[in-house]
Input
Amino acid sequence: MMPDPTSSVPGLTDRRALDRNRARALRLGPVDFLHRIVADEIEDRLAEVNRRFSAVAVVTGRPQLWRDAMPGATVVADTPALALEPGAHDLVIHAMALHWAEDPVGQIAQAARALRPDGLFIAACPGGRTLHELRDALTRAEAEVTGGLSPRVLPMGEIRDLGGLLPRAGLALPVADQITQIASYRSLFHLGRDLRAMGEGNALAQRLRRPTRRDVLLRAAALYAENHPDPQDGTRIRATFDLVFLTGWAPDASQQKPLRPGSARMPLAEALASTRKSE
Output
């Protein structure tokens, strides 16, 4: 279900700001190491699937990178209404954009409709404790210096919640897992520069519409260095990126089905007793 444009409830994402941030990242010379990690990880996962995919689509905010990573794929923007033809693809990848979606279930459901029966959906996005160090430093600094708080770091979904989106979107055999990437930076300001070059600056709809005060940033940098140093080099800071992978299949009669409740041939207690005897 798409958000109601007449609703008074504030949205999560300012799409104009997000588009500006992404355009600025291209001008800066984009930092894309997370996208490349995800692309390599997806390639490894596809190699384990005993199938050749011939009609691939990629949904992303970084189209050129993914055209290079997936030659021949149809690449579309992560707009609220995806430009995907129903039933046209045997593989749809939602690449590093789901975290900005106003309606993530709707995004996955649209991708699912674009799949052929028994087609594969894979999504990858930041989640979990991504940038928790930055959130901590900015929150503490702003509260200490100004006595208030404002939205600065995008809320990240937990793996359990993100995995639950798959069946809600109509996909079968759902699987969710994650990998963690730790990056090392000289300071909060160098991390901020990389985030801007990723196109991942603050595009929250409820963000402050004026530059952050310098004294807040300086205090946040000091708190970051004090509380989240790089264990390998105490003069640097660490930044956590949890990359969540979601996998599901378009339903098909050929797929394995769970047993009906009560259809087991042996009661659970008897099965456990049998196992204990064999140990």
Q: What stands out?
A: The mean pLDDT is 90. Residues 5 and 11 are 9 Å apart (CA to CA). The radius of gyration is 22 Å. Residues 33-47 form the longest helix (15 residues).
